[in-house]
Write a structure and sequence with these properties.
heterodimer; A: Rossmann fold; two-stranded antiparallel ribbon; 11% strand; B: 792 residues; alpha/beta; three-stranded antiparallel β-sheet
């Protein structure tokens, strides 16, 4: 079963659809005990995330320990809180975890400053409510409620953006595993297998800190930025390749050099020091995340495929990098120019990149 | 009898005539091995136990049964104390003969924790009245001979021969060898079978390795001792040694003649050095020191965890997390029982997920991180060391012979009547008194050794002959003292050794401080090599900052040398050459500086300046009654002259940073190396409209520095500054205002007010005389003043 068979018109299919084959393979071979409500055993979930070097592709490249803690947390019916700066694959991990554990990554609550309580508990079909009075049929369940009913994983994105009073509606759900519906005098009790994966980023200002009562109900896993250049190159290459397939960008040759260059620039600006540790550079105001590096390379490939000669050239990524670095023209412009002049200019094999970047300002 | 040994079916054992020999291959400091060893001993009930360790320790092995000997402890082997003995130790360093050889350790350690298999074997033997023999090479060999090998151990963190189990564990995909041992060995309890499996694994590992010369010697010696034990008629013999050596001691022992032949030249060499006998005793040790590499192979990374695993009665994970929770609460972080419950659940689930038979440190740490501290590594770090190292101090009963340093220190503290007390106490020393001087030297020597008994504090009285110390003896210092024993056998010796050891690993300023320390501690034996190092470093160094940094410490040393009765002869020569280099480097060091560099340079220059003027005033400030003091004061005076001359040469350069220029102008003026006219000329040149406003303001900052008194009292200068300020255009004034404000904000409020009053009162007409004096009132004050002055 391939991507085009199942969802030809969908722009970004869900993880459980894209990797249905791998999930099926794992389920078939998996002879270990599965926690109630789980599609796979915890070991198989870890294998799904990290790959087995053969038919299962790695979804998360990084510390095995972190994934083990994450899966073990879900296996103890605790909730999982993934924290990290933007672009550290929090959402990505959360999606794949829920796909592997319950085969459904769509029970999603997107946290915003305007997320209402109904998004976490339930709403009403007002036409029915007025016509028939309160009845189970008039209840509009939230993704959370549906996850409880089916014993699946519910996802909460950007938990810290949700206003504090709304956040706290999660407390009962997480500790009692039940959701009272006082209007009907009933409650929904979670089926076995229900759990919550929340993500939050610790970089943005103006977020609503979790109350300690809520915090206590989560096990926390901090996702770090990739530890080494090679690791990051690997992540970017894999994501770019799969995105390229999904977006049907014509094949582009020789991407390795430019991907390494993009990753190097991003890492150096993020860390504030060159990779050899010799030169200090200023960091721009943006986060220079892995996710941005991926989109820079994808954009560059599109340029190369449609307007270039089918080979990813320095000029194709230069403008993308500039866009990612210079968020605030007044502050970041000099940072970028300084980086070009002091670091990029002298570096072997970077001449064409330097020239291309300078032409674009 | 020895040659008739036959191979037994079990790999870990052999039968030699009527003797049955079991070799227990262990992992040093492995709690798993420790438990296995105890079980094996209980099962075998040997009548002699042979342990890998220095044979000199046989005599003190019995102390293991003493309840006063509480691990962590270490066997300390030290080379015999030099003949002059401890009575002369105070001035031992004065003699030329006592110069320690810098590279050779003077002591060696074999540390044991409660979870060390060797310790458990010792305890078992002591409890069951079974004799213990140590079978490794004599400790003297470590102290006197170079039997280290060609292979440097730096390229691989843990060389194979030191921790072969770690290598096996790594091959099996385990990061922690103890973990692997636990998983693979501990949880398949089969007493002796465990050791047979280990023996087999080691035999396989050793097939591909060349045995190092050092190991060959050690194993030959072990066999020698084993044969001796068999000969003594022991029927059941248990050997406890590192797993690596098991294959060498099992099976059919090679002919004794071969081992003897191998050992003979070595033992002869040992005898020839005259130090054939080392003394061994028990000393207290600590978990912190256990965690660093010493003695037996690799250090233990988490002694706290091992200790916990070995001692916890039951439910080790629950207890561990509870302990972590307690520590976190101590740091003010809220940890509830609910946290602990969830933490234990996570740790256990993780262990199951990872396919481990039991929950280990990795899982426990992951659980603490994820549940107890919300994934925050910073908060985890607060308690991680306390948990994993779990600092613990050993105790040694008074019957144990004390180590040489301890003996020396005890003797000296007794002579000097400076008892070691746990209570913090201030001691003021008058360096003119011989006893106080010796006390000061002792405290300085200990400080150099890293035994922080005393901390130097200010004294109430003025004068260079006074020294204040706050002394507080912490039990942990005993361990520091023991560890310092590698550098020598008396406090003075060890301090000399340590100083030379450190000097090879630090920069110019560091060496200068060591020289200062060595003089204060009266380590004259260490001084010549130290000064050589200093000179070499100064000759090779290009860093003028380092040169400048080195001078003040040396100058202080030279200055106070007289008080302490030391004659730092060659020090003066070194200082002079160092100073000359610095002065030559000065013009290059002061140009092309940015604000930060200039701000960093000025304090350096100030220190040097203070140092040389200190030397210049040496004679005036302090005079020795015997008149022999300060030979070559001309040199000191000369240095001062040269320094000011050097400053004067660069004072008028245009490319100076304003701050530096201002400071130089001020210094030359204060030191009376520039006339008032010259100073005024400098000021007006730097403050004239041609100078950029920023430079001018920086000049002012450098010139007036931290005290405004010069402006209050020197009306001519004030007038100059005032004129410059008034002449600024509006724009220029706004530009310099922040800088000016910064310099003036450093003055005390009364000073600022005084300056303001001066400016306000001065008007346009130049100076105004001071407040007119009232003759009658003055007359009434005079008798009081006279009384005060006479009294003084």
């Amino acid at each position: 079963m391939t991507l085009t068979d199942t969802a030809p018109a969908v722009m970004r299919p869900h993880a459980e659809d894209v990797y249905a084959e791998e999930l099926a393979l794992l389920a078939e071979q998996d002879d270990r005990q599965r926690p109630p409500g789980w599609r796979l055993s915890p070991q198989a979930v870890v294998t799904y995330l990290l790959g087995d070097g053969d038919r299962i592709t790695p979804k998360y490249i990084g510390d095995r320990r972190l994934m083990e803690v994450a899966v073990a947390t879900l296996a103890t019916d605790r909730s999982l809180l993934l924290i990290g700066v933007p672009g550290t694959a929090k959402t990505w991990v959360s999606e794949h975890l829920s796909a592997a554990v319950s085969g459904d990554s769509t029970l999603l609550v997107q946290g915003t400053a305007g997320t209402p309580e109904e998004a976490i508990r339930y709403g009403w079909n007002y036409a029915k409510l007025l016509a028939e009075g309160p009845s189970p049929a008039a209840v509009v369940p939230s993704p959370m409620m549906r996850a409880m009913e089916t014993g699946a994983v519910a996802r909460v994105e950007e938990l810290t953006r949700i206003p504090s009073d709304v956040q706290d509606t999660l407390i009962t759900i997480l500790s009692e595993k039940s959701l009272p519906i006082p209007e009907l005098g009933t409650e929904v009790q979670a089926a076995k297998g229900f759990t919550v994966i929340a993500t939050a980023n610790d970089r943005d200002r103006g977020v609503n800190e979790l109350s300690s009562a809520l915090r206590r109900r989560f096990n926390t896993v901090v996702l770090p930025v990739p530890g080494s250049v090679d690791e990051e190159v690997e992540i970017v290459s894999r994501r770019v390749a799969s995105l390229g397939r999904a977006l049907e960008i014509p094949a582009v040759e020789d991407t390795a050099t430019e991907i390494r260059r993009v990753v190097t620039v991003f890492r150096e600006l993020r860390d504030g020091v060159t990779s050899d540790g010799r030169t200090k550079v200023k960091s721009p105001s943006g986060t220079m995340s892995v996710a941005e590096a991926i989109s820079v390379v994808t954009a560059g490939m599109t340029l190369a495929a449609h307007f270039g000669d089918g080979v990813l050239r320095p000029a194709d990524v230069a403008s993308g990098i500039r866009g990612a670095v210079v968020r605030d023209p007044a502050a970041d412009g000099p940072v970028w120019r300084e980086y070009l002049e002091t670091v990029a200019r002298e570096r072997d094999g970077w001449h064409s990149f330097y020239t291309a970047a300078r032409e674009q300002g | 009898m020895t040659s008739t040994a036959t191979t037994s079916p079990a790999a870990g054992s052999s039968a030699a005539g009527s003797s049955r020999v079991e070799v227990l291959g262990i992992r040093h400091h492995g709690p798993g091995s420790a438990r296995s060893v105890v079980r094996a001993l209980e099962a075998l009930r040997p009548d002699v136990v042979l342990i890998e360790g220095p044979p000199e320790a046989d005599d003190v092995a019995g102390l293991a049964g003493d309840p006063g000997l509480v691990p962590p402890v270490a066997l300390l082997a030290h080379a015999p104390t030099p003949k002059r003995g401890r009575a002369a130790s105070g001035d031992a360093a004065d003699g030329s003969g006592a110069t320690p050889e810098p590279q050779r350790p003077r002591a060696a350690f074999w540390p044991f924790a409660v979870f060390s298999p060797e310790w458990q074997a010792l305890r078992w033997a002591a409890g069951n009245d079974v004799p213990v023999r140590f079978i490794d090479l004599p400790a003297a060999a470590h102290l006197t001979l170079d039997i280290t090998d060609d292979t440097s151990s730096d390229d691989h963190p843990v060389p194979l021969h030191e921790d072969p189990l770690a290598r096996l564990a790594a091959a099996a995909g385990y990061g922690d060898a103890e973990r692997w041992w636990e998983d693979l060995v501990e949880h398949r309890t089969g007493d002796l079978a465990v050791f047979e499996a280990v023996a087999e694994a080691m035999a396989a590992l050793r097939e591909d390795e060349t045995i190092r010369h050092r190991d060959a010697l050690r194993e030959a010696h072990m066999r020698l001792r084993l044969r001796a034990a068999i000969k003594d008629g022991a029927e059941r013999i248990v050997v406890v040694c590192g797993a690596w050596h098991v294959p060498a001691l099992t099976g059919k022992l090679p002919p004794a003649a071969k081992d003897t032949a191998l050992l003979r030249p070595f033992l002869k060499e040992l005898k020839d050095t005259g130090h054939a006998k080392a003394t061994v005793t028990w000393v207290p040790w600590s978990h912190g020191r256990l965690a660093t590499r010493t003695g037996y192979g690799a250090g233990v990374t988490s002694p706290g965890w091992y200790h916990h695993m070995f001692t916890a009665a039951d439910r080790p994970v629950e207890r561990w997390l509870a302990h972590a929770g307690e520590l976190l609460r101590g740091e003010g972080l809220p940890v509830s029982s609910a946290h602990l419950i969830e933490g234990v659940r996570l740790a256990d689930t993780l262990a199951a997920l990872r396919g481990r038979p039991a929950t280990g440190l990795d899982e426990a740490t992951d659980a603490i991180r994820s549940v107890l501290v919300d994934g925050d590594d910073v908060r985890l770090a607060l308690v991680r060391d306390q948990l994993e190292v779990g600092e613990r101090l050993g105790e040694v009963p008074p019957e144990a012979p004390a180590g040489p340093l301890e003996r020396d220190l005890a003797a000296r503290t007794k002579t000097l009547r400076l008892p070691r007390q746990a209570l913090a106490k201030q001691v003021d020393l008058d360096l003119r008194k011989p006893t106080d001087l010796e006390r000061s030297r002792l405290l300085h020597q200990l400080t150099l050794l890293g035994v922080a008994w005393g901390r130097q504090v200010g004294t109430s009285g003025k004068g260079t002959f006074k020294e204040g110390w706050e002394v507080e003896w912490d039990p942990g210092l005993a361990v520091d003292l023991v560890a310092a024993g590698v550098h020598g056998t008396t406090v003075a010796d060890a301090a000399s050794g340590k100083v030379l050891h450190d000097a090879a690993r630090t920069g110019l300023a560091g060496i200068a401080r060591l020289v200062e320390g060595a003089l204060l501690a009266d380590l004259s034996a260490a001084l010549p090599p130290l000064l050589d190092t200093l000179r070499d470093q100064a000759a090779l160094g290009h860093d003028s900052d380092a040169l400048l940094d080195a001078i003040p410490a040396l100058a202080r040393t030279l200055r106070y040398g007289d008080v302490r009765g030391t004659s730092p002869g060659s020090l003066r020569i070194v200082l002079t050459s160092l100073f000359t280099r610095a002065r030559t480097a000065l013009p290059a060091a002061v140009v092309a500086l940015d604000d930060d560099a200039a701000a960093a340079l000025v304090p350096r220059l100030r220190e040097v300046s203070a140092a040389v003027s200190l030397l210049g005033r040496n004679e005036r400030a302090h005079s020795e009654p015997d008149g022999s003091a300060s030979p070559g004061d001309d040199t000191a005076g000369g240095l001062r002259g040269e320094w000011l001359d050097g400053l004067a040469r660069i004072a008028d350069r245009d490319d100076l940073h304003g701050l530096v220029a201002g400071w130089i102008a001020r210094t030359l003026r204060d030191e009376q190396a520039a006339t008032s006219e010259q100073t005024q000329a400098r000021l007006s040149r730097f403050l004239s409209p041609g100078t950029p406003a920023r430079t001018a303001a920086a000049f002012i900052e450098g010139f007036v520095g931290s005290s405004g008194l010069i402006l209050v009292h020197d009306a001519a200068l004030l007038a100059l500054v005032d004129r410059w300020l008034s002449s600024l255009s509006d724009d220029a004034f706004v530009q310099v205002l922040p800088l000016l404000r910064r310099s003036f904000a450093r003055f005390d409020a009364p000073e600022r007010r005084a300056v303001g009053e001066r400016v306000a009162g001065r008007g346009g007409s130049g100076e105004r005389s001071a407040v007119p004096l009232h003759p009658e009132r003055v007359a009434r004050v005079l008798p009081v003043l006279a009384t005060i002055l006479e009294k003084k």
